[in-house]
UniProtKB/TrEMBL annotation:
GO MF annotation, one: metal ion binding
All copies of domain Sulfatase N-terminal, residue ranges: 257-560
This protein's pathway: Cell wall biogenesis; lipoteichoic acid biosynthesis
Catalytic residues, chain numbering: 313
Keywords, comma-separated and alphabetical: Cell membrane, Manganese, Membrane, Metal-binding, Transmembrane, Transmembrane helix
Residues the entry annotates as binding Mn(2+): 265, 313, 492-493
Sequence intervals crossing the membrane: 51-73, 80-97, 130-149, 161-183
Ranges of compositional bias, category Polar residues: 677-694
Name recorded for this polypeptide: Alkaline phosphatase
Binding site for substrate: 431
Homology family: Belongs to the LTA synthase family.
Species, as recorded: Streptococcus mitis
Positions where 3-oxoalanine (Ser) occurs in the chain: 76
Length: 716
């Protein structure tokens, strides 16, 4: 096909043609950034990856057209060309600034970041951030200047019709609506829940992300501006009144031990001791976790409820790290995590003799805004997907690297942490959609037989997670870390949603027809276990509590008084613990006597619905309802008002986030070892410089069950 340059030149000589030329140039530059500079986690070769690629291919156009077409409203020739070039330049500056920033911080520029210009280039000389292909981003400017100067592109002196300008604005708005619709299909509640900055960019483009970020910043700052130091008094009064004193039998029991959190993704309590019956044969889903649950070295809790809402995993992390709830709408980590002053476990422990802290997670670091929130929490290191084996269809799925691989890869970093350390492993393999998460030799555990594929795969991925946890424990024992540590295991939230529970019912001894809101409430229970090697008085404790109670429980086990911190939970081991679990849904709660859930009230022990409340029951329920509501209210006031910035009684000070970088964590840890010399307490130093990576063994399902290789195709 022959290109008619005369027609192209003539088209570029019209106002609309000039705008479209700038739009195409901006679109191509954005696609270049998507392809070579940003990691948008688009895995081509999969249906979902192709869909995401299409959205990313399309998304620069709607807002690009909307903004550039504003110049069409200008009447004079000078105003039109000046405005169109100015808008194009601003779009370019925003794009390239993000390219430059991303190379340093693996994230996008937010409205809050823009307030502190120094953050854009901290730690690396600017010249080192340049790449050889950067000339492509700039080459059109001298070219356009030349074409306009030589009048190869003629200036159009005719004003563009107002009605036509409105039509183009309407078209761009329609295109953006279509873009948003397509994005919401792939990721429902994209804007309300936040998830990750790169999700917004991947779905809606960089200009949309700027608007989203500015709105988030405005909402947060508006609440923050209203707050003052006087707001602290009722907060501190509540904390002191509801503080549960430590149980002397447990206080300081684990003092000085390494703390290792194992975050069990989407793991519900009913999986413990559960056996999946397939054609008359029972298959134990989590044999290793079951052994821990019943171990004499474990304090296990049977009635701990998740208290998350839209933030889900991020809500669980927020509660476990800060002793405060997530938000009623959206995610605290996304909306406030990178800016609020916080009293989080890593920072608290660093002031109580702990030498280092780290998170290990096989997903991208910006998900749930972890890369900035973790700095505010005081984490020294964050090892995300960029530190581990490159992901492909054989070792990962959409939410990250499979757990065994992540854990094995993590040892090269874990062994360099100074002891005692505080470490957290966030697993991902037991994440929705379950049925398609595993491949190859990890297949073999049977799928359940229901009409819901999500439920069917849930037991298989839970079994895989159990196997990964066992491999990690075996490593701890082989390396010598086991006896020096306590291992805290918790489930973050439900794995099977309430809408699917009726299909799950027959597998757990219930019927779909008689399924009730009481059953939904009871399935909100998640595991919580504290494994303490050398301890011999382990037991299963039936105390009722929630995730909000985990941090004060841990603090007291470590010999740290919790009542000097602004935390609304209570030590589960304390005789003063009030057994009231507040859900984030209004008027929903659980106590040992009553369960109120989704508008219905039941006796907790029997599950019988209470249809006619007597006066005593009404009084008791109102007391519980007010207590649950007050706990949530106090937490929300602290979170949205950023009240901890005014609090001095903890003597913690503030985290120096400027000194924390997650880009070169291993060299930083190695430098600390060198500086400490013989005083270094890392496992690597204690092994005289010999790595322990070879001690981690992670056999696959089929290696552990060779008989399954022959029957795997039938069972799947």
């Amino acid at each position: 096909m022959r290109i008619n340059f005369n027609k192209i030149q003539k088209a570029m000589g019209t106002r609309l043609g000039f705008v479209l030329t700038l739009l195409i140039l901006y679109w191509l530059k954005t696609l270049l950034a998507y392809a070579v500079d940003f990691n948008l986690d688009i895995q081509l070769g999969k249906l979902q990856g192709s869909y995401l690629a299409f959205i990313a291919f399309f998304n620069p156009l709607p807002l690009g057209l909307l903004l550039l077409a504003l110049a069409l409203y200008a009447r004079s020739t000078k105003a039109f060309y000046s405005l169109s070039i100015a808008i194009y330049s601003l779009l370019f500056i925003w794009l390239y600034s993000n390219v430059f920033y991303y190379r340093e911080f693996s994230d996008f520029i937010t409205a809050n970041t823009m307030k502190v210009v120094s953050k854009v280039s901290v730690g690396t000389a600017e010249l080192e951030l340049l790449r050889f292909w950067d000339f492509i981003y700039f080459m059109d400017f001298p070219l356009l200047t030349y074409l306009l100067y030589k009048k190869i592109i003629q200036l159009d002196r005719r004003p563009f019709k107002f009605r036509s300008s409105v039509a183009i604005t309407a078209l761009s708005a329609l295109l953006f609506s279509a873009n948003l619709f397509l994005a919401e299909i792939e990721r429902p509640d994209l804007l309300s829940r936040g998830f990750s900055n790169y999700y917004i960019v991947r779905a809606l483009s960089l200009p949309a992300f700027l608007g989203y970020s500015a709105n988030q910043s405005y909402s947060a700052n508006k609440e923050r501006a209203k707050a003052s130091e006087t707001d602290l008094q009722p907060i501190t009064d509540y904390i002191q009144e509801h503080s549960a004193k430590p149980n002397p039998d447990y206080f300081g029991l684990a003092k000085g031990k390494n703390v290792i959190y194992l975050h069990l993704e989407s793991f519900q309590q009913f999986l413990l001791d559960y056996k999946l019956n397939i054609d008359g044969t029972e298959h134990e889903v989590t044999p290793f976790l079951n052994s821990l649950y019943h171990s004499q070295s474990t304090l296990a809790f049977s009635n701990i409820f998740n208290q998350v809402k839209a933030g889900k995993t991020s809500d669980a992390e927020t509660m476990l790290e800060t002793g405060l709830f997530g938000l009623d709408q959206g995610s605290f980590m996304v909306n406030y995590g990178g800016t609020n002053t916080q009293q989080a476990a890593p920072f608290i422990l660093s002031k109580n003799g702990y030498q280092s802290s780290a998170v290990f997670h096989g997903n991208i670091g910006t998900f749930w805004n972890r890369n900035t929130t973790y700095k505010q929490w005081g984490y020294q290191c964050f090892f995300d997907a960029s530190y581990f084996t490159k992901q492909d269809s054989s070792n990962s799925f959409q939410y990250g690297l499979n757990d065994k691989i992540m854990m094995k890869d993590s040892i090269q970093y874990l062994e360099h942490l100074q002891q005692p350390f505080y470490a957290k492993y966030i697993t991902v393999s037991n994440h929705y959609p379950y049925a398609s998460n595993l491949t190859g030799d990890e297949l073999g555990f049977p799928l359940a037989k229901t009409k819901d594929e999500t439920i069917n795969g849930y037991f298989q991925t839970a079994n895989y997670l159990d196997s990964a946890i066992k491999s990690f424990f075996d490593y701890l024992k082989e390396s010598g870390l086991y006896e020096k540590s306590i291992i805290v295991i918790y489930g973050d939230h439900y794995g099977i949603s309430n809408s699917r529970n009726p299909d799950l019912a027959p597998l757990i001894g219930k019927t779909s027809e008689n399924w009730s809101n009481y059953d939904n409430a009871m399935l909100q229970r998640v595991p919580f276990m504290v494994v303490m090697p050398g301890y011999e008085k382990g037991q299963i404790i039936n105390t009722y509590g929630g995730q909000i109670d985990i941090l004060p429980t841990l603090e007291h086990l470590l010999g740290i008084e919790s009542n000097s911190f602004l935390q609304v939970g209570q030590d589960l081991l304390s005789p003063d613990h009030q057994e009231i679990i507040a859900f984030r849904t209004a008027n929903s709660f659980v106590t040992p006597k009553y369960t109120s859930y989704d508008g219905r009230t039941y006796y907790t022990e029997s599950g019988l619905e209470i249809s006619n409340l007597d006066e005593q029951a009404q009084t008791e329920l109102e007391i519980v309802r007010q207590a649950a509501s007050q706990q949530l209210k106090i937490s929300d006031q602290i979170q949205t008002g950023d009240l901890i910035r005014f609090y001095q009684a903890d003597h913690l000070g503030k985290v120096d986030t400027e000194s924390i970088s997650y880009l070169n964590s291993l060299p930083i840890l190695q430098k600390i070892e060198q500086e400490k010399g013989s005083q270094s307490t890392s496992l690597f130093s204690q092994r005289q410089g010999k790595t322990s990576t070879d001690l981690f063994k992670a056999p696959s399902y089929q290696e552990l069950h060779p008989e399954s290789a022959e029957t795997e195709s039938k069972s799947q």
